[in-house]
Each structure stands twice: as structure tokens, then as C-alpha cells.
Amino acid sequence: MQLARSTWQEVERYLQRSTGMIIPIGSTEQHGPNGLIGTDAICPLRIAQEMEAALDVLIAPPINYGMSQHHMAFPGTVTLRPTTLIQVIVDVVTSLRQHGFTHFYFLNGHGGNIPPVTSAFSELYAQQGSGELRCRLANWWRNDAVTALAAELYGDAEGYHATVSEVAVSYFAHPEAVKNVPMVPEVAPTADFYDAADFRRKFPDGRIGSSPQLATVEAGERFCHLAGEALGTDYQRFLLQ
Ligand code: NI
């Protein structure tokens, strides 16, 4: 059940069955030569839809902007400051709390969101004192089933940014947007990086350690099913917390 395509009466009825909700969160940032700018939001939304097929769950509209400061040297990237993202999370959860939702499952597609989102959770817990509020951050690409399949299919070429698995999941979600782009070197470099200019200097085409030219719609479907199943179980456990 999608919040954006529901009526208020349907939401009111849902609240009688459950006070849990999935909120996909991603980013709008470069993902290398063949990865879509929306990859980090597209993946968790598609995985949430996978969970929706098996569970009675309400999915909020995705938060499409994230903390992407380090990608700002590439055109198309948009970033929220960490403080802005914290406020967005706090306001979204506070709004939904007023209607009776208690369990917020943030299904995340972007590593840069982890510190601000967990900081927002601390702000929310500080505001509520003791209460029913429960927030969880689930990073889909860190799920054991997902990392095992990525290791099996791609080994080290999975990489760290514009990874093969995330590009594959985005292609499964949007097969019309698949791009065929030659990449040199085949596997992108890895290094520590600091600001946006440093990132672009070290990773000129935007990838870190990956070979996303290996991404296929078929593999994306496998990742999506695996993640949907594993995270569905995780979500059900979370509701009991
Ligand atoms: Ni990404």
C-alpha cells in the first residue's frame, strides 16, 4: 500500500491493523558512467515494493534527496546539508507520529545518509522522552544475503560506489534506462577521499572500485527478491520491538 496513492480513510483503516511504515530514502547523485542519478532512491523503493507484495505494509513517498556533499563535483548531484536532512527526518516522523504511527522503518540506499539519519533518530528519542516511538535504519546493500550474492557474482569488482548490485537493481526497476557504456579502467580505483574536488580527482568517472558494466536486469531481479525477502523478515521483527 502506497501512501501517495491512498486516501485518508484508507490510512485510517490501515492504522487499525498496523502502526508501522516503510520510508524509502536515497539520494540524487552521480553513479558513474552507466548508473542513474536516482539509483539510491530507486533501489529502496523497488525493494519496498517487493516487500509490499508479501506483507500488509504502508510505504511512504521516498525521500529522494540525501547527504551527497562528496559528489557535488559531478553535474546533476543535489545535496542536503546534514542538518537539513536531520530536520526533514524529524519533521516527517513527527507528522506521522501525530496520526498514530509508531514504527518507522527507513529503507536506505545511500551510505552518506547514515550519520544524519541516525542523528535524527537520537533527536526524536530525545524529544519524546519515554514512549512508543521506534525507528530503524535498514541499509539494503549491507544485508548478508545481498553481500553474499554480490561476492559470488562479482567478487571485488562489486566496489564501493556505483556498485554493480545497485546499478543492477536500478536497471531491474527501470529496464528502459539501461545504458551501455565502455569503462576504462575496467575496475575503478579505490582510495580515501575528502571533499568533492578530491573525490572527482581520485575517481574521474565517479565509480569507486566497481565494474558496473557487469550490471544486468536479471541480476537486479535476483538482488531485489533476496533483499525483499530478508528485509521483509527484518521489518516484521522490528514491528514487535
Ligand atoms: Ni548509490
Q: What can be said about this structure in brief?
A:
45% of the residues lie in helices and 7% in strands.
Which terms summarize this structure?
Rossmann fold, 3 strands, mainly alpha, 241 residues
3D architecture notes:
The chain has 241 residues and is mostly helical. The protein has one domain (3-239): Creatininase (Rossmann fold, 3-Layer(aba) Sandwich), CATH 3.40.50.10310. Helix content is 45%, strand content 7%. It has eight helices and three strands; from the N terminus they run αβααβαβαααα. The protein has helices at residues 8-17, 39-54, 82-98, 114-128, 144-154, 164-173, 196-202, 217-239; strands spanning 20-25, 103-108, 134-139. A three-stranded parallel β-sheet has the order 1-2-3, with helices on both faces. Helix 2 packs across helix 8 (217-239) and helix 5 (144-154) packs antiparallel against helix 8. It starts with 7 loop residues before the first helix and ends with a helix. The mean pLDDT is 97. Bound molecules: nickel (II) ion. Nickel (II) ion (NI) is lined by residues 31, 39-40, 110, 166.
